[in-house]
Amino acid sequence: MWTTTGYPCVQVAGARLTSIFTTLKGVDERKSDDTPTTRRSLLDRQILALAVPALGALVAEPLFVLVDSAVVGHLGTAELAGLSLASTLLVTLVGLCVFLAYATTAAVARRLGAGQEREALQSGVDGLWLALGLGIVLAGLLWITAPWAVGAMGGTGDVAEHAVVYLRWSAFGLPGMLLVLASTGVLRGLQDTRTPLWVAAGGATANAVLNVVLVYGVGLGIAGSGIGTAVAQLGMGAILVAVVVRGARRRGAALRPAAGGIWANARAGTPLFVRTLSLRLAILLTVFVATGLGEVTLAGYQVVASVWGLAAFALDALAIAAQALVGYGLGADDVPRVRAVLRRTLQWGVAAGALLGLVMAAGGWWFALLFTSDPDVRTAVALGMAVCGLLLPMAGWVFVLDGVLIGAGDGRFLAWAGMLTLVVYVPFALAVRHWAPDGAAGLAWLWLAFAGVFMAARALTTGLRARGSRWMVTGTA
Q: Are 99 and 276 in contact (CB under 8 A)?
């Protein structure tokens, strides 16, 4: 792995880790005579201290695609269409690997809560090696299969050529991106969401500069965009790995790859991979249905889905806070604290969902004006966002419960529940495709199926699980 000498940003982040360890110990040592109001206020501050920076990092990641689109868009329509195909494949591939962050967060937080700082960082180092190995393998496969993958997406002619060029050059950044996921998981487990925020912001800025310089200054075209993105991702991965390695060295964790530790991380991540796969399949099915309902429905779906995605990022930030705090509480064998985190983050999630839902429902028509001049699409967007706004509080409940159970290491249940909810959703989605009208009404029915039926199935399964105690396994098990 990389060495860690002489980088001021790494030194600052390392000092922050030391401060976090000290603060957490201080929290554990607080006397039980604190008032309920004081304890709730302290918990609220902990939730916000983790969630707000996490939100910034989550929003910074999509900026890569936005910057690439803005730069490449001026090269021509074929280049932009090629980027659209390539970025869809890349986002899907990286999204399926998000278990590298989730599994590591839970494992590190649990060990940290148990007072096993060295073991926590050792688990994190093993996760980095898994991410590096997986990233190298996926990069090689992507380079080889890029033409086939683009063809499978329907790409032809110049569009396919540009998509393959972008995919192959950006493939070099996959190891960096997966290291970013694993390192971010380690730092979240250590209750540090600020360092990933600053690195994500710096990476997005570097990506923008590199894209402009390589695409237009050097004249590399769409290949320059792929190279710039890859370099930025590798740089982000190197910095975050350096932060983790610095902390690991200070606490005596071994930096060598350990087959047992890597296998343990892979085994813990497999159920979360299945869970993520079920979500991706549900989204792909939703797009399939929208496509079958006509051009207006599909165009409206793209706008509503973009706004829904932004709201999901905000709610996911609370889920990340829940992951870290629940993992820490279970590691510390503090079940009352875990229950308190569950209750409070659910309250935050539903309240945030209600607030964001109100904005979506009330502002649907105004959002539509920003994206299209077609009156039919505007009507579809406004109606679709009204439906989503009404159902977003339930989504807030679902996302937070996901975070709680991921933090508890309950991945096996989430895998089975994910596939079960997908099975429940499929007939409703297909019914919309066959019987719903096109246009605004069709889009409303589609979002009722996805944000209503699918989310309700997830809310029911995870809610029933959270009411019990089987997921609250304490200690480092």
A: yes
Q: Are 17 and 162 in contact (CB under 8 A)?
A: no
Phi and psi at 258, nearest 5°, equal: -115, 120
SS3 letters across 401-412: HHHHHHHCCCHH
Q: Read out DSSP for 305-371?
A: HHHHHHHHHHHHHHHHHHHHHHHHHHHTT-HHHHHHHHHHHHHHHHHHHHHHHHHHHHHHHHHHHHH
- How many whole angstroms from its chain centre is CA 220? 31
Share of the chain above pLDDT 90, in %: 36
- The torsion of the CA quartet 454, 101, 94, 177, rounded to 10 degrees, works out to 160
* Cα–Cα distance for residue pair 403/314, rounded to 1 Å: 13
Q: In Å, how far are 34, 318, 404 from 40, measured between CA atoms? A: 10, 16, 18
d(CA 255, CA 126): 8
CA distance linking residue 254 with residue 154, whole number of Å = 47
pLDDT recorded at residue 6? 43
Which pair of structure tokens corresponds to residue 27? 């929290």
Q: What pTM, to 2 d.p., does this model score?
A: 0.79
Q: Give the pLDDT score at 61.
A: 62
**Cα–Cα distance between 293 and 430 in angstroms, integer?**
11
Torsion of CA 3, 8, 14, 19, to 10 degrees: 170
Q: Which residue, among 355, 337, 288, 246, has the nearest Cα to 8 in the 3D structure?
A: 246
The pLDDT of 205-224, averaged and rounded, is 89
Q: Supply 111's token pair.
A: 């060990």
d(CA 125, CA 72): 37
